[in-house]
Structure to design on (182 residues):
């Protein structure tokens, strides 16, 4: 019985802390300012992302570093991503993103099956798509991706990636994205 009360007490303290933290973050001027920005505003210029990718198939975890350059091109937006994994693997991807409505975009990339759906709302940007992904053994798999950017402060976003094959999770990534000055 005392263990239950101790656990409940700990949960209540943690919950209060979480609520106070959420209230502080959402009330901060940086958070409010970032919420009003659109996709092109945040992704323009030079950004870096650092974090880890976890592969559920083999249980491995790899460090990830991404160098991102974004710029308007006519009525669209070009995003160039150069990714380096801790095991030496490198990837180069070029996105073309077009606005189709307020807070809604479509993205194109050479390896996509169809277009990516991009939705920006509040302090979040969500990108969903399906892509051809080659493996080291020469095979190609069609995987589903869901990327989420959550603005945590001015010039910074928390990035989460969920990868699945049909409905089976294949891997996840968590990175911190920062806008570089100038």
């Amino acid at each position: 019985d005392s263990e239950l009360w101790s656990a409940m007490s700990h949960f209540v303290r943690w919950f209060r802390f979480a609520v106070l933290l959420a209230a502080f973050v959402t009330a901060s001027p940086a958070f409010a300012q970032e919420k009003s920005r659109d996709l092109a505003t945040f992704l323009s210029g030079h950004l870096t992302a650092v974090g880890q990718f976890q592969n559920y198939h083999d249980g491995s975890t790899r460090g990830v570093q991404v160098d991102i350059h974004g710029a308007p091109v006519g009525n669209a937006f070009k995003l160039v991503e150069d990714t380096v994994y801790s095991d030496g693997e490198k990837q180069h991807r070029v996105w073309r993103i077009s606005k189709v409505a307020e807070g809604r975009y479509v993205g194109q990339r050479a390896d996509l099956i169809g277009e990516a759906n991009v939705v920006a709302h509040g302090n979040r940007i969500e990108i969903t798509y399906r892509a051809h992904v080659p493996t080291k053994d020469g095979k190609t798999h069609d995987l589903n991706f869901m990327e989420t950017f959550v603005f945590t402060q001015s010039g910074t976003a928390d990035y989460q990636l969920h990868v699945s094959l049909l409905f089976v999770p294949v891997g996840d990534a968590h990175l911190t994205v920062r806008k570089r000055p100038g």
In short: The beta strands are 45-55, 61-73, 76-85, 90-101, 104-108, 116-121, 124-134, 140-153, 156-165, 168-179. The first strand starts at residue 45 and ends at 55. Residues 1-36 have pLDDT under 50 and may be disordered. The CA atoms of residues 40 and 77 lie 7 Å apart.
